[in-house]
Amino acid sequence: MYDSLCRIARERALLSSTAAALDWDQETNMPEAGVEYRAEQLGYLSGKIHELGTSAEFRGHLEAAEAAGSSDPEVAANLREWRYHFDRATLLPRELVEEDTRLSSVAKHAWAEARAKSDFPTFAPFLQQLVDMARRKADLWGYPDEPYDALLGGYERGAKTSDIAAVFDPIRADLAEIAAAAVERGKSVPADLLDGDYPIAQQQELNRRIAESIGFDFNAGRIDTTTHPFCTGMGPRDTRLTTRYDLRDFTSSLFGVLHEAGHGLYDQGLPAAKYGLPSGEAVSLGIHESQSRLWENHVGRSLPFWEMWFPVAAEIFPHLRAIKLDSFLTTINRAAYSFIRVEADEATYDLHILLRFGIERRLLNGTLAIADLAAAWNEEFTTLFGMVPPDDARGCLQDIHWSMGGIGYFTTYTLGNLNSAQLFAAANQNPEVASAANMADYAPLLDWMRRSVHSRGSTQLPQDLMESATGSRTIAAPYLAHLRSRFLGG
What architecture is the 162-488 domain classified under in CATH? Predict the structure, then answer.
C-alpha cells in the first residue's frame, strides 16, 4: 500500500512539474494573448493533480498503510504529511481548485497591467475575487481562531496566526527602533556612489560566476529575466532562477540572484531520488526563505565575500576601481526607507512584512474592504515609515503575491529572516564553517545546510527542524543581534 501511495504521489509530482514549466513560461516568454488559454491549461492540470490526491484509491492505500504502521521514521513522516494534505485537499471540490488556478493565472496578468499603469481600481475587481476565493477555502478548511489561520497553514506547516503574532508583536518596537537608527546613520552615506553604466551582459557574467561560486549548479539550473524575481523547481535537477536588471546599479540584479540562488540551493539539495514524496520536498516557506535571506544578506553583504568579489566586479565594471572597499560595503549596507519591499535593506525590510501581515488579516476577516485597501495601505505605511506612497505602483500594487492567490505568504519572509540568522549562527559554531567563510569559501557552510536542512525534506515539521539544527525553535534574538551589529555597530 505504501508503494502504491508513492506511485500516485510521483504521478502528481509529474503533473505539478509540468504546471510549473507552463507557469515559468508564462512569466518569462509567453505572449500576452496566450494568457486566457494558459489559464485553462493550468486549471486542468491543477484539477487532475487534485483528483489524484483525493481519489478513493489514494484514500484506501493511505488508510491501509496507516493501519499497517512503520518503524521507519521516513515512511512515518511521509504518511503523516500525506494524511495532512489529503484531509486538507478533500475539503475542496475539484471545480473550486480549477477555478482558483484559472483565476490566479488571469489575475497575474491583470496585476501586471494595473501595476504598469499604477491604477489599483482596475485590479480591484480581481483582488475581490481572490479574497473571496481565499475566504471560501478558509471556510472549507476550517480554522481555530480566524480565517488567516487556514491560509497560513498552507505555507508554514503547523503555524497559527497567534503563533506568528506572538513572535512578531514583541519585536515590532525593536525593528522600528533599529530601522530608525540605521536610516539616520545612512543619511551620511551617498546614495549614488555606485551609479554607473552596467550593461546587462556584464551583469549576467558576474551574477553567474558568483552564483556558481556558492554552489548553484548550472547543469541543473539557469537564470532568466522577468518582472518579479522568483525561483521555481520544475523537477529534480531543473531549478529556474529569474532576476531583473537596473542599468545604473549592478547590485540590484546581483542581490536578487543571490536571494533566488539561496532558494535554488535548497531545491538542488533536496534528495532527488525522493522527488514527489514529502521526504523529497521543502518543508515550508519560512525555512525556504531562510536559505535565500542567508545567502543574500549574511553571506552576500559581508566583508569576506566582497574581499573576494569586489576586485572581480571592478575588472568587469572598471569605474568601480575608484571606489574603496569599505565605502562600497557601507553603501550596499546603507539603510533608507523605501516604498518598495523588494528594494528594502535589511534594517527596514521587516516593517514591510508587518504592514502586509496586518492588511491581509483585515482583508480576510472582513474589517477592511477592497475599496478601502489603497487608503489603508498608505495610512499604515505612513505610520511605519513616515512617508506616503506617491502612487499605487509603489503602494498596494507592488507585489505579485495577491494576484497569484498567495494570501498568507508574506508572513514567511520575516520568519525566513529570523530563521536565517539562527541557522547562520548555529552553522558558524562549527570552526570549519566559520574559518572557511572568513576566506569567502562557502562550501562548508553549504554542506552544513545540506546536512541540517536540505536533506531533511519534510520529514520534520518546521519548528522541529529548527530545534534539531540549532537547539531551539525560532527565536528573534539572533536576528536582532545581527541587525544591531551590522547597522548600529553593536
Answer: Orthogonal Bundle (1.10)
